[in-house]
Amino acid sequence: MSPRLQATLMPWLVVAGLFAAWELLVIVAGLPPFVLPAPTAVFAALAEFAGPITHHALHTLGTTVVGFALSVAGGVALGVAVGSSAVAYRSLFPVLIGFNSIPKVAIVPVLIIWFGIGAVPAIITACLISFFPITVNVATGIATLEPELRDVLRSLGASRLDILRKVGLPRAAPYFFASLKIAITLAFVGSIISETVGSNEGVGYLMIQASSRFQIPLVFAALLVVAAMGVAMYFVFAILERRMTFWATRGVDAGYATGG
Fold first, then answer.
1. Residue 227: which domain range?
2. Predicted model pTM
């Protein structure tokens, strides 16, 4: 088997093995569907409720993408500002760490009071929860520029803006694209947290409604859809990372991103 074919087949084989083990566990333990549904029951629910699942999944995807886009814009801007200044780096990093330590689920009720039930709290939560890794990675990429290289560029007449634009930002690009793969999965978490607390649409809302009716297979079907969307978005940014930072991407990451 060629390495490319092996890299393509192995993830699918692992997933198939996990589903088989899950099915066997349910059968052997005799677990009822309202405790742990078998994969066959989950896929049956996925087919039966395909319409509602698709509607709520698209809503969650939309709020996640919008919130993620806001986090990218704000995270890059703040990361550049923090990474370009040693004073800002030392001053703002404790604030960023402290803010990131706050459970975002505790903020959702406040957002609902401010903006009402709907998509806005989900967008803001997705933005807040995915903001930190982007900011930190961009700031780290810029701040770790070698002092010797900075001194050489200044001796050649380069201004701080020139160093940032021509060296700092390209240096931070691998950090930035790596952070996107992490941040997009966190954005899904933020959207669903908000939808479970206060929303009338989205996968989180669907899961709460299904749980209240003890439709546990539907809950697991919704979780599988979220997992599939997260994996798909991860691979989108993994491929984008390789295309944009091929000069810095390690071979193992590049092969994983493209299946070869």
1. 50-258
2. 0.83
